[in-house]
Amino acid sequence: xxxxxxxxxxxxxxxxxxxxxxxxxxxxxxxxxxxxxxxxxxxxxxxxxxxxxxxxxxxxxxxxxxxxxxxxxxxxxxxxxxxxxxxxxxxxxxxxxxxxxxxxxxxxxxxxxxxxxxxxxxxxxxxxxxxxxxxxxxxxxxxxxxxxxxxxxxxxxxxxxxxxxxxxxxxxxxxxxxxxxxxxxxxxxxxxxxxxxxxxxxxxxxxxxxxxxxxxxxxxxxxxxxxx
Length: 228
Prior knowledge:
mainly beta; Porin; 8-stranded antiparallel beta barrel; 8 strands; 53% strand; elongated
């Protein structure tokens, strides 16, 4: 997971100069009276030069964002062996300011394990969280962001059957939070590709310990509605 974290930092460093290039160009400074006394023959070329195309800003501010995609979670008790789980995520964001939004997100991840011969275990985790989402440079061609989400988690695990016993279902609820961020790559007027990396924590007592940590990697699409 250190490689994923390093990749995220690298993407942010790449995005900063790209966003800086997107900034609108400033107008030319006012000329003094002496410069205005040039002949018409000299003014014509200058006017032609000023008519050259200026860099166009790619900045935009959508009012709403909907995102969905693939989710991978590395889950387990802190300091113990971890379990890789795959699933989905879906989120909705209202952009209150150019740089600040409020996000709600749902996640579901699953896996199948065979710890003993002839047996099977199917753990799954669902979370519903909400919190602030920050775009420090606003929305551009490349838009890094960070967020902190807090809410509720649900753990469910089907154990068995182990002959001669049947199956058992274990469930638990817990408070959950995640913190991290990602990068949006704007590909069409109302579409972007999104990559995210987060660290989170839960306290499902039924999973064998009082606390668990998780590393989450997600890739999905973003659709924009409205403009600010």
